[in-house]
Amino acid sequence: MKIWGxxxxxxxxxxxxxxxxxxxxxxxxxxxxxxKHAHHRFDVDQPGKDSxxxxxxxxxxxxxSSGARWALMTELRDEGEPPLSALLAKLDPVDLVLVEGxxxxxxxxxxxxxxxxxxxxxxxxxxxxxxxxxDAALEIDRPVFDLNATAKIADFIATELSL
Length: 163
Description:
The chain has 163 residues and is of the alpha/beta class. It is built from four helices and eight strands, in the order βαβαββαββββα. The protein has one domain (2-41, 80-161): Rossmann fold. Helix content is 23%, strand content 25%.
């Protein structure tokens, strides 16, 4: 599997870029999966539902299945967060895995940047960031794409990964 990341500070357009890239790559005939890091506690379950009740009762894993999809939830309890490599190993093989977040990991990335957010670029201090997608002109030693130039960004990723 080929892996490419979208990284950047909060509110810089990472999720929108991810969404557009998934649509672009799948439209080109590639199979794509995504992996997103969350810095906060999250819950994909709903209080009162059977699966929620199973998990709260102490189940380590709860698998939900229907004719449309299945989902496996694993409760870490007192375990630490698994490394990116362990999470990637849980995915079915696809042409491309797009990873949102995980800015300190060693896979190649594009940094999403919005000038109005006012955060500094990560790219100057991170060689794993191969390009920047921004809403402003930037002076930097690697390619800069318009944040909304999805096809051009996808072309760059495809070339870099030989997709």
